């Protein structure tokens, strides 16, 4: 199986220090690149606008969820079969993208997550704890164990992109996509191990562990109740094995 058409999607907000390197590394993959600027007040739009990419701009900050929605809609409009997302702060390496695409070829009808399973000691303790809580809750809601539900480096097949209108905002949107894709669309989730990158040169994350994990947790509880099979879902999320793959691109 081959992936017919995919693009890279980079949502960004005030990333003038890192965005050029991120975009240029994505362009080096040879795939089309969409960049969604979420109302930056610095030179991010100017820098991106000088590069051979499609730049979509929000006039004011709307949150990561809305930035992803804008990118998903554009990808669907252009007829892409899949999207690979990368954050604009340099936390993700474009060198890992071919591995995600190779995993998608091996596991059709799956969302592929670049799971930060390598060098985990480099993650700030507060983030590690917050991610563990989110993994526990989202895995329960999805009725399967998932590694690193908070990673923004993902491969989304078209069936997941079509969930663009889910009523969830901010960082909750990425959790909502996982839950709806597995529960409503029957998609699987596979994780590809990637390195944890928290170099000092990266700007402070827009993710706020207490605030955002609280919002994600409340949303997840609602979804667990909505789907009804509360204890069966929990047992599957704890008993089944996480699906991990590390295929090398052909």
Automatic annotation (TrEMBL):
Record domain Glycosyltransferase 2-like: where: 7-129
UniProt GO MF annotations: transferase activity
InterPro entries: Glyco_trans_2-like, Glycosyltransferase_2, Nucleotide-diphossugar_trans
CDD domains in UniProt: DPM_DPG-synthase_like (cd04179)
A Pfam short name: Glycos_transf_2
Entry protein name: Dolichyl-phosphate mannose synthase
Keywords carried by this UniProt record: Transferase
Top-rank lineage group of the source organism: Bacteria
Coiled coil: none
């Amino acid at each position: 199986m081959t992936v017919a058409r995919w693009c890279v999607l980079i949502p960004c907000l005030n990333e003038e220090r890192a965005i050029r390197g991120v975009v240029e590394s994505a362009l080096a993959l040879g795939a089309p690149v969409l960049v969604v600027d979420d109302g930056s007040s610095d030179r991010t739009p100017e820098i991106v606008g000088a590069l051979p990419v499609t730049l979509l701009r929000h006039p004011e900050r709307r949150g990561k969820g809305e930035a992803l929605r804008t990118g998903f809609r554009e990808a669907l409009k252009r007829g892409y079969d899949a999207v690979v997302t990368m954050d604009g702060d340099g936390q993700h390496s474009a060198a890992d993208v071919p591995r995600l695409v190779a995993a998608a070829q091996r596991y059709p009808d799956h969302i592929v997550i670049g799971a930060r399973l390598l060098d985990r000691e480099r993650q700030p303790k507060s983030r590690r704890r917050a991610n563990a809580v989110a993994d526990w809750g989202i895995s329960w809601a999805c009725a399967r164990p998932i590694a690193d539900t908070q990673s923004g480096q993902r491969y989304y097949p078209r069936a997941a992109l079509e969930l663009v209108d889910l009523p969830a905002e901010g960082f909750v949107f990425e959790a909502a996509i996982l839950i709806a894709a597995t529960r409503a669309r029957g998609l699987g989730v596979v994780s590809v191990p990637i390195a944890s990158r928290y170099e000092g040169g990266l700007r402070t994350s827009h993710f706020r562990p207490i605030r955002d994990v609280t919002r994600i947790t409340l949303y997840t509880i609602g979804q667990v109740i909505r789907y009804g099979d509360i204890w069966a879902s929990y047992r599957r999320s704890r008993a089944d094995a996480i699906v991990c793959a590390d295929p090398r691109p052909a």
